[in-house]
Design goal:
Blueprint: H1 2-8, E1 11-12, H2 13-17, H3 24-36, E2 40-45, E3 48-53, H4 55-94
Antiparallel strand pairs: 1-3, 2-3
C-alpha cells in the first residue's frame, strides 16, 4: 500500500485495497498502522479518505538510518583493526 501511494502521490482508501484482494476493514487496519507510524497522512473530503506520503517522516527515517550506518561502519572498522592487531601479536609470539 505504501509503495502504491508513493507511486501515485495520493490514493483513495478503496483504491488501496483492490490490488491486494483484501476486505475493506483489513485495508483500513493497515492504513491506520501507516498513519500511527506517521508515514502517511489522511485527508477526509466527505466520504472520501485520501492518503499521501508524509515526506518529512521519510526524511527523518533516512537521517536516522544514515546515522546508524555511520556508527556501525565505524564500530566494525575499529573491531576489524583490533582483530588484525590481535592476530599480529599472536603470530609474533608463536615465532
Amino acid at each position: 500500500m505504501f509503495s502504491l501511494i508513493a507511486r501515485r502521490g495520493e490514493c483513495l482508501a478503496g483504491e488501496l485495497a483492490a490490488p491486494f484482494d483484501i476486505a475493506q476493514p483489513t485495508a483500513s487496519k493497515h492504513l491506520r498502522v501507516l498513519e500511527r507510524a506517521r508515514l502517511v497522512q489522511r485527508t477526509v473530503r466527505g466520504r472520501e479518505h485520501r492518503f499521501r506520503i508524509r515526506r518529512e517522516s521519510i526524511r527523518e527515517a533516512e537521517d536516522w538510518i544514515a546515522d546508524q550506518r555511520r556508527f556501525w561502519e565505524s564500530a566494525l572498522n575499529l573491531l576489524g583493526d583490533f582483530l588484525k592487531e590481535t592476530r599480529s601479536c599472536d603470530e609474533g609470539e608463536q615465532t
